[in-house]
Amino acid sequence: MELNIALLAGDGIGPEVIDQAVKVCDAVAKKYEHKINWTSALTGAAAIDAVGEPYPDETHEICMNADAVLFGAIGHPRFDNDPSAKVRPEQGLLKMRQKLGLFANVRPTFTFPSLIDKSPLKRERIEGTDLVFLRELTSGIYFGKRGREDNGNTAYDTCSYTREEVKRLAKKGFEMAMSRSKKLCCVDKANVLESSRLWRETVQAMEKDYPEVEVSYEFVDAVAMRLVQWPNSYDVLITENLFGDILTDEASVISGSMGLMPSASLGEKTALFEPIHGSYPQAAGKDIANPLATVLSAAMMFETAFGLNAEAQAIRNVVDKSLNEGVVTEDLAGEQKAYKTSEVGDWLVQNI
Amino acid sequence: MELNIALLAGDGIGPEVIDQAVKVCDAVAKKYEHKINWTSALTGAAAIDAVGEPYPDETHEICMNADAVLFGAIGHPRFDNDPSAKVRPEQGLLKMRQKLGLFANVRPTFTFPSLIDKSPLKRERIEGTDLVFLRELTSGIYFGKRGREDNGNTAYDTCSYTREEVKRLAKKGFEMAMSRSKKLCCVDKANVLESSRLWRETVQAMEKDYPEVEVSYEFVDAVAMRLVQWPNSYDVLITENLFGDILTDEASVISGSMGLMPSASLGEKTALFEPIHGSYPQAAGKDIANPLATVLSAAMMFETAFGLNAEAQAIRNVVDKSLNEGVVTEDLAGEQKAYKTSEVGDWLVQNI
Ligand SMILES: CC(C)[C@H](C(=O)O)[C@@H](O)C(=O)O
Ligand SMILES: CC(C)[C@H](C(=O)O)[C@@H](O)C(=O)O
């Protein structure tokens, strides 16, 4: 099979972790006799520096012509404490999500037996946790009307959802629940927000089409609690954009394996795969960042974008093996020897 | 001193835990020679049943004429899965906050040495945690314009803030930071939301008036993570209404002492004190609920509303004593004997 993949390395540690994922993908492709055509493109602060724009049209072109997008990270501290900066890397991220139509952000949180003790939670709380969030990614308060009034002294943002937007996200949620343990939790704030009431009534109306799925409805504040108390009581969760931003980040640290968590963002026409750890600027260029989240994102890509399950499993197996044999970067090494980012990549390639 | 206190027991376990707090307050008042005039009023589902309204005008009258309000909890499961119910207990809560002008919700999270092992977090993560959130409580998306368009197929909510609203909340935050360790964290989503940019620029402009306070700015998603990872790295945090709803609930479970966490809601004219645990309907009427959060809320009331610090400390001391001697309800008893709600209250009174 011929695989056309757009490669957006982005900022911070993005380029180093992407390099390892590319090596691993090429090794898998060789083993299973595929041909990958990689096309690199600029994004984030790197793109602002080069062409004054965090998501240039040329990059969009490349993504639209690819079968899938593999993405590193964007964001740079020099923009962080300057809320008035005219061009910001995050705008590129939001523009990319919207222009590519990536409406469903899939973020799993699971545990690796060998890493349970890295979790801030006690073993008995976190053991067996295997949940996945579907976060709506192209609507809500991120993309509603916003502005200032009264000489800049009043600021507003609008959270708006249409029934169709809720439906297409919820449909993915029901389907994912069917392929897992048939439990779906709809997270909202229907006791206060009108948009949440639309979410709840839309999901309620879909229940009859999936009679086997057991659906629960929980308020976002209650979920923020239970994620810390009993994370393993959840399976598939669906939610709107801003709640998803907060809760998926909260969920990402409970496993203690944040450096390993992959994600996918799905649209009608294309899909994008990225590690959730962000650009981690303090580590950029040092060859110390953990590449495994990006490598596991590539596994999700083989499975979700190309339907190549054996290839995905081959990647997951070699990642498990590296963890079991302690071939890991400093964040996971503890008292043991810490490998460099590129050394972990090389080891994975040799063991595919 | 003569203390005029409005008493809103509310729903679920509200009445039982309020009863214990009243007994304790009366005992403290006797010891320190104060006279408390209690005036009870209806609120929540109880008020809907009695007069068709969750926050009746008469209740408001009573609150406005009191020096402080002691509140139990509101909410009833019969309203929970009916987003379209016309009258809901929560509306009473929101109306009460707005009409009483309770713009600053103060929610501490701290640990009790004897309860550290109840935390879902590992001991070394949670030990020493002593933080306090100031959540803006009368504006933002809770009170902005909301509605439906397009035949009910589009729903929207508006988050709006004025500079003055941010200032008065931030002022309380800076003052609280000055009385503690002089560290203040402003939690926002300034990389996306215009209202957050107003928050950030307003707080930045206030920094010069509090040169001793070290201010940091963090995104809400990052705080949702760090609260689980390193809760003891925070001290005073200020944030807007919805972020505060989510994060204070998340923070409340990390200590493992949710049943003990008090809160205060401060306004220009009056202040309200309540346990954060909610109405806990499953336990209502069983005399098993933990009354300590309500008793500690009464301690906050003595201190904050009346400036009676010795009285507040006397309450805190007797609560500590009950914990150390194992005079606790079933949620904390473990293998030991569990006391009834009313028995804990009686014991506190005898030991004041
Ligand atoms: C950088 C920021 C705009 C972004 C978001 O809020 O969506 C990030 O937090 C994420 O979750 O991908
Ligand atoms: C009941 C609900 C409206 C309320 C809120 O969201 O403010 C509650 O969660 C709280 O935090 O007091």
UniProtKB/TrEMBL annotation, chains A, B:
The keyword Glycosyltransferase does not apply. Its cofactor is Mn(2+); Mg(2+). The keyword DNA-binding does not apply. The record marks Y142, K189 as: Important for catalysis. Pathway: Amino-acid biosynthesis; L-leucine biosynthesis; L-leucine from 3-methyl-2-oxobutanoate: step 3/4. Pfam families: Iso_dh (PF00180). Substrate binds at R97, R107, R135, D221. It is an enzyme of class 1 (oxidoreductase). Binds 1 Mg(2+) or Mn(2+) ion per subunit. Its EC number is 1.1.1.85. Mg(2+) binds at D221, D245, D249. GO terms for molecular function: 3-isopropylmalate dehydrogenase activity. It catalyses: (2R,3S)-3-isopropylmalate + NAD(+) = 4-methyl-2-oxopentanoate + CO2 + NADH. It is found in: Cytoplasm. Keywords: Amino-acid biosynthesis, Branched-chain amino acid biosynthesis, Cytoplasm, Leucine biosynthesis, Magnesium, Manganese, Metal-binding, NAD, Oxidoreductase. Residues 4-348 form the Isopropylmalate dehydrogenase-like domain. Its main location: cytoplasm. PANTHER family: 3-ISOPROPYLMALATE DEHYDROGENASE (PTHR42979:SF1). Homodimer. Catalyzes the oxidation of 3-carboxy-2-hydroxy-4-methylpentanoate (3-isopropylmalate) to 3-carboxy-4-methyl-2-oxopentanoate. The product decarboxylates to 4-methyl-2 oxopentanoate. Belongs to the isocitrate and isopropylmalate dehydrogenases family. LeuB type 1 subfamily. This is 3-isopropylmalate dehydrogenase. It comes from Aquimarina rubra.
